[in-house]
Each structure stands twice: as structure tokens, then as C-alpha cells.
Amino acid sequence: MFWTRVLPALSALVVGALVGALPKVTRTGKYLYTEDGTRFFIRGVAYQTQGIVIPGPDNPLNQPSTFVDNLADPAACARDLPQLQKLGVNAIRAYSANASLDHDACMQSFSAAGIYVILDLTLPLNGSIDTTQPTWGTNTLDQFLRIIDAFEKYDNVLAYNVGNEVMTPSGGSQAAPFVVAAARDVKAYLNSIHSSALVGYASIDGPASWVDNIAGFLACDHPDGHGTSIDLWGLNSYSWCGDASKSTFDGLNERFAEYPVAAYFSEYGSENCDPHPRVWTEVPVMFSTPMSDVWSGGIAFSYFHALSKGHEFGMATLAADNSSVSTNADFDNLAAQYHAVAATLPTTPSQSSAGEQSLPACPSGINATTSGAVPPTPDDAACGCLMDGLMCLFTPQNADYNVLVGELMGVACGLAIQMGADCADISADGVGGVYGRVAMCDPTVRLSYVMSTYYEGAHGAPGACDFQGNATINPKGKSPTSGLAKTCIPSAKVFTPSAPPELIPVAPTTGNGTKAGDGGTNGSAATCRMAGLGGRGALLFGGLIGIRTLLL
Asked: Is the pLDDT of residue 526 over 50?
């Protein structure tokens, strides 16, 4: 049996991990350093099996709808670790993780091998800040904190990313204030638990002025303060083609010469150019001056095969039974480049001379917010107070209710507006910097709030709290609804969040019941009481079609 063959090797590495901890990596100014003051460069590879991708107009970036938690698969980690060591990496980037699973074996074995982890806190579909209809709510914050709580015991967590390509040139930058708020609250939580992990963001590439403004907005002196800057900015860059000229990165390097926090390539390695296979000649350029004066390494994309925008990436192919892996010329070429630069990494500037850089004023060229205001910290207790007192509660008949929340939100808002009310309390406007009192709450709370607003306006008419059997009257409900909101949420606040409440499943989830490395969807988003929509389709205002049906 495969497990009996690979786990002894993994166990030996785990024992090694317990002997000595990896040195912490911290940021001083725009550079990364280990505890002994040595400059740290990320020599990494993306390490995540691609989930199911459903292309379509609602998914222009071909984001997967499910994920595989490779860091919870001891057999796969044991299979891949020797290859990662051959590759010469000191870091991997994982794009999603299931906080409820056990990651000990993989994380400890990678630690023993000197491999750090950059972990995205987001989940597919509804577990991230949405590009076009962003919110920063209790459901997303709690998800982020649960993942942090699951990984903070490991010594090799280098950074947590609060977003990946959330803002895009085509989708706009209205989500930027919400990403800033996420970074602020995650940093505050990490400080409260005495964590040295960095907080990062990975940006899509695009027009120079757009990229620069996004990067600047995430590392500037926001008017509300509260330590909103990220620590680590990543650029998903595929601009280097084949055996390009050393001057390819000159313009990019000049643009970021004064960037105040650490920067790296969160993805690199173009497949859209000749020669093929990839020769990775950008590596010696990235890890030497003048690039090393500005950048701190990068993450090559990708160890596993992945399809993106019509191009196929990947360096390793799994055998039919997933018990072994074969690597290609991309792998060999990158390994040669990584091993060559490892012995000649720059050592300057020293940590003592790096110094902290003051944050600049926020850029004015970004269409993110006219006021500079960012959303408040989501408050579970306040939203719980509100939910307990609402008169009409969302009680779905089906546990898989994410799409239903969006549909009913549009219907309920339309009905409330017809009766002279509005949905301003649940709305969040990053461009205007205006955030409704209830906008920070879980989508199910926001929906119940709008349902209650309509029910109250209808004077408790029969059927006004039904919505095709997806709502029930709360005998403890209080009126007026807006007054209850003011009592429970008197004002927006920024504070250090505490550990998230317990996640209570309302239906069986897929779990981790797949074969090791078989590409199962063990990371598909579970439906839980504290989980919610929080993403695509959350607010469908104006959709009055089907109102009559939903009220019957």
C-alpha cells in the first residue's frame, strides 16, 4: 500500500523538524532578513494542484471553483519533497487550505527541509474579497483567522496573503480599500498572538501606471492609520520571455526603487514565448544587482500542471496511481538556475543599515476611494446581537444556499425599496468610502436584515416573511429594524479582532476522503452557520423578477 511505502520517510523528516526550528524571517524596511541578520531571498515554486475550473463570462480569470489541500496530504508531500529539494527551493506558495484538516506532517517535513510557506488565506468562489462587488465581512475575516490559527504553530509560515489578483485592470480597483482593511485586521490579529508572519498581497500585472497605483495604495499612509500597510507585495509577472535581454526588468526595477515594503514576484515563468521548454534566464537577473536592490526573489509557476488563459504550466506529472512523479525540462532548467544562484546571493544592505522607510502619501491616481476611508473591522458580537433581534430570519431549505442568498438579496431589497426603504445599511462603497452599518456582517445576517425591513414595512402581513419557505418569523424580533441596528452597531470601529467563533456545519461536507494526491475536492467550500456568500453574486439589486413566486 502506498501509504506504508512513503510515510516512514516522511516520519523521519518530521522527527528532524522537531530538533531545531527554522529561523524567523522578518521585514526591515523593504528587505527580508533571517534572525541572524542575513538577507533572505524567496527561491520558490507554486505548490497547489489546480481545482475544477468552470470557464464562462462570470469567471474571466478562469479561477477554480474547488481546491485540493496539498498540505493536508502526507503521502503527496512525501512523494514531492525530494523533488522540491532537487529543485533547490526554500519556499512554496499554496493558494488555499482547509483549516479543519491536519497539516502537521507536511508542514513539519517541509520545515525540516528548510522550506518556508507563503499561504493565501482565500478560498475559491466565496472565500475571498470579490473584485466587482467587494465586502469585508465577518465571514471572510473569520475564515482568514481560522486558517491562521491552524497554521500558526508551524515555524515555517513566512507570510499570509490576504488576496490574489483581487483588483484587475478590467474589473477595476474598487476592492482596494477592502484589501487594505483585510491587511490591517490580519496584521492586528497576528500581533495579538505574537506571530512574526508577514502579511502580503499578490497583484496581477498590467499597465505600469495601474500596477504602480495599486501597489502604492497597499503600502501608503492611509488617513485612518491603524497600520494598514502590507508587509510583502507580490507581482504575478510573466513579462520575461525565453532568453530575454537583461534589460527586460529595468523599467520595472526603476518604478519600484523607492517602494517602502518588501516586493517579490509572486508568480513568474512565461509559457507564452519561445524557446520552449522554459529556460528561466530571468533567475540570475532577479537574484543579483540591480534587481536584488529592490526585489526579494520570486515564486516560479508551477510545480503541478495548471491551465491559465490558454497556457499550460507545470513541471511535474503524476503517475496514474499518484505514487510517483516525473519531472520535465522546465524543472531541470529551473533547478540548475536556483542552485547556481544559491551560493552567490547578495548580502547587502545589512539589516542594521536597511532602516525602516516611512510610508508615503496614498496615490491619487487610483479610482478606489475619494475619501481615503477603509471599511471598519467586522464585529461578530455586534452582528450576532443584530441577528438575534431581527424579526424575519433567513432559514434556507437547502444547505447549499450561496446562490440563493444573492437571489433573495436582490428580491428583498427591491421589495424594501418599493415600500420607501432602502438598502444603504447593507451596502459598501469603496469608491465613495461609505460603508453601511450592517455591511460588515455575514451575508445571511444582511439578508435577514433586509427581509426584516420589508416585513416591518408590510406591517407583518401574512406571507411577508416567507420567501418561498426560506424565511421564518423570529418570536423575539424587535422593531424598528433600523433602531435595532443602531443599538447593536452604534458606530464603525477599528479594533484588534479576537479568535473567531466555532464553525458549526449545517450539512455534511466532502471532507478529505480522497486518495492521496488524487485531485479530490477536499477543499471545496463547506456550508456552515458562520459561513456566507461574501463574494460573487452577493448583491443583485434591482432583480425584481420572481418576486411574486418567492412570496407565495
From this structure: no
